[in-house]
Amino acid sequence: MRIALFTETFLPKVDGIVTRLRHTVDHLQRNGNQVLVIAPDGGITEHKGAKVYGVSGFPLPLYPELKMALPRPSIGYALEEFQPDIIHVVNPAVLGLSGIFYSKILNIPLVASYHTHLPQYLQHYGLGMLEGLLWELLKAGHNQAVLNLCTSTAMMEELTAHGIERVQVWQRGVDTELFHPDLASMDMRSRLSQNHPEKPLLLYVGRLSAEKEIERIKPILEAIPQARLALVGDGPHRQALEKHFAGTNTNFVGYLMGQELGSAFASADAFIFPSRTETLGLVLLEAMAAGCPVVAARSGGIPDIVTEGVNGYLFDPTADIQDAIAATVSLLEQKQERDMIRQNARREAERWGWAAATSQLQDYYQKVIFSKQLTTHRK
After folding, report:
1. pTM assigned to the model
2. Is residue 207 within 8 Å of 283, Cβ to Cβ?
3. pLDDT tens-digit series, residues 258-286
4. Which residues contact 226 (CB under 8 A, 6 or more apart)?
5. Among 30, 116, 167, 315, which is least packed by CB within 10 angstroms?
6. Which of 109, 79, 100 is nearest to 4 (CA)?
7. Domains, in order of start, for the chain
């Protein structure tokens, strides 16, 4: 198959969507497909054998790490030259609209996928009044597609409730070699805890942005005076967070990549994830693959991954933070229980390799292409 993949974010940016896409592109190419990635220009022209067509853009005012790339005619020429069998638009917003447009013009079947819970993000940027309008725009875009994919059953139900049609789940995936309990190291633990490896170590990994609600970790940290907190990642909310956590045992680590990131997960005592806006929370699977016990909000796609008291802990994000504090304290105090959670978390993650997730996606593509051929033949 020849697959044109439109995305609003790609390498060198680091986030859950990019992680999924780079593994997906890698496995699609390995399976003998040809992929063309159309994305905001990041200086990358190739990834794992797939051509990357960069479209120049400008940084988003609220989120400078994200580039907004506007559709242009040259995209149409690139598609005509590539001759895709299918177009897949990831999080259609701006650049993705040209994917929808060219699927109509060139009569190529269209798949769309939903990864970022944008309507919920609006509340964190003081734009909650636009939520209804945004759902209408999302519905209009996604309902152009033959198939809409999302990353959890909770999101499938929510999209359907908002009028988005033909929705299926695209299963989760994680790199179980890169994220592994064997990568635990005293050196990494010392680095994360600022030379206090003997203290309980709490970890957060992800974007430092308002919608992640990282401030909610502070009461947990304060309830365990000996604990240290490592925040791995970066983003537009970093300065505000540095002020918020001033005077606490918090280490702003910045980005970690590859084996260093795997080691960070494996070396911590608990992964704290308070966000209520996750469609899946890929980073949770990475923590679990590394055997790091998870304490996360019972929200969005998270309960699809975390089974309370079996492979992690869930807390009620609408209540005060006492649930999360109690779960974290219990986890740190009971070594036997923590070891059991670690083993179960790893076992859960081992079920979700990227090869299986990509194989499922290929099946979806083939069904969409076949149904298009059938319709054309009948005409």
Report:
1. 0.76
2. no
3. 999 999 999 999 999 988 766 567 899 99
4. 199, 200
5. 30
6. 79
7. 2-173+353-373 (3.40.50.2000), 181-349 (3.40.50.2000)
